[in-house]
Target: Enoyl reductase (ER) domain-containing protein
Amino acid sequence: MTDTMQRIVLASRPEGAPAHVNFRLEDTPLPEPGDGEVLVRVHYLSLDPYMRGRMDDAKSYAKPVEVGQTMEGGAVGEVIASNSDLFKPGEFAFGMFGWASHGVLPAKALQKLSPDLAPISTALGVLGMPGLTAWHGLTSIGKPQHGETLVVAAATGPVGSMVGQLAKARGLRAVGIAGGPEKCRLAVETFGFDACLDHRAHPDAASLREALAAECPDGIDIYFENVGGKVLESVLPLMNVGGRIPLCGMIAWYSGADLGDRNLLPAAWRAILVKRLLVQGFIIFDAYHRLPDFLEEVAPKVASGEVSYLEDITEGLENAPDAFMAMLKGGNTGKTVVKLV
Amino acid sequence: MTDTMQRIVLASRPEGAPAHVNFRLEDTPLPEPGDGEVLVRVHYLSLDPYMRGRMDDAKSYAKPVEVGQTMEGGAVGEVIASNSDLFKPGEFAFGMFGWASHGVLPAKALQKLSPDLAPISTALGVLGMPGLTAWHGLTSIGKPQHGETLVVAAATGPVGSMVGQLAKARGLRAVGIAGGPEKCRLAVETFGFDACLDHRAHPDAASLREALAAECPDGIDIYFENVGGKVLESVLPLMNVGGRIPLCGMIAWYSGADLGDRNLLPAAWRAILVKRLLVQGFIIFDAYHRLPDFLEEVAPKVASGEVSYLEDITEGLENAPDAFMAMLKGGNTGKTVVKLV
Model:
């Protein structure tokens, strides 16, 4: 066993879109597990949009990553040393190990995985945080009703693709939005969306709205909000009375995208008032207690192939920054993971 | 009995703040009630911020008033002729008679009033739509909990003053916002707010926010939203995790007030996400079925004096436009009514 490990730290805070200069790969001594702790060798590291928020020094639902600290993130890997009765070496676990080749965490902070049930990488995507985000936001805030219409952006991403599939399974019309014709094709063919619009083909919100209106002849009842920006601006006027907007992200605005016009907040407030909309923010860390219910419904469907998922796999920890930056620009198609082993 | 009546029609649509040119006083023949209808002589006419929205040709929750049509509005008056078993001449009723001295409506569209219970003008304010708006928004969306902090603007207005009194009765800290030191004094002394801030003393949102933060040491759990604009911008960063924002109006933006910065929608969306806020629009016409429950709780408190209310009474239908325009600029202190008889 090697006595060093690798990690990627936040070298400096980005202004707008992150760049290479904001990350630094380091070698550090391999830590030893203390009492009740386990040492894990990471196989797959998750890259998610929320991590962009952690790079800023702004007050948020979680503390920012400090400059010089390991970039935060969930990962799955194999236990290689254990000082806990809960784990034996050779078992697999999910935990918040960060962007690192190895990590030590209390055994109680880990979630044990069964590699027989599904590939362990799915614990980062379709059966992990993104899948739970989709399921929790849709069921607890979206409250989908048979025959309604749902819109979600990043439709081939791990959240959007799950939202679409769950909506279809509940008898809704599901309209996706994605970047480029290839993703739109995947959204319809792989994930079963009724239609998918390429936001890149629409230079402004008015154009995108016109296309959305054509695909949503009965209006929009649920807008699962994970992007903000132009898509939000397009969707709001099409919302039906009593519509619901679960809000879990705003990736379009994370890295300094165009803020839009000055009248957007008044226009949004007016839409919420006139249509009696419900807009509710949620973060998945509030809903981890629902993970067992989620897995009970969705894990068998992943195993049977009824629920599809896509992974964008990048090899090597040193390539994580590039994969992360590409994801923020929409370069990913499915769940972005970095394969370390 | 006279055979003519007076009414005020929408003469033209306003751009921004309404002006005299947008209204016209007309004499018209007194209508005769048809089968099942009653003729009412209006005693008090209600003036409310929502009417500003009806003057625009924009899609909203209700049709706009057409140019040449009577301005919409609720009113209370005495039945002077009846072709219905439901009403006898001499009885009092509330109905949507518009800005007019008389009106004919189906008896079923009227609500009978007991002048012994409370002055009939209260059916336009503290025991009418504004009171119900406050009670419904606070109880069904705000879900106040003992010990929480609530903020509401237009704190001496008919909605804000009721919100504050209901919040205090439920054990919350209630902080009002109003225009000018006299209104702020009334908010505290007459309506029992713990504190009231004069928004005119704060040139920008940052200044108002600093003052609010000092009066809300535990943050804000409920922001009852009826104004938008600078107050909203001040409040959002102070909201606590899990806060609720019942949204029933945005008077600051109705007549072309400053729209604020371009980053307001991203900032609002970020606050909703990070604080997991619930924002829900509602209009009182969706909640009229709750009127009996509301009256059961609040009417005895009005009769006993436990719940206070203020009325701004203008005499004469011809003065309704002036009173309406003044109200939109914050010139009213309590419920704005026009006394016709």
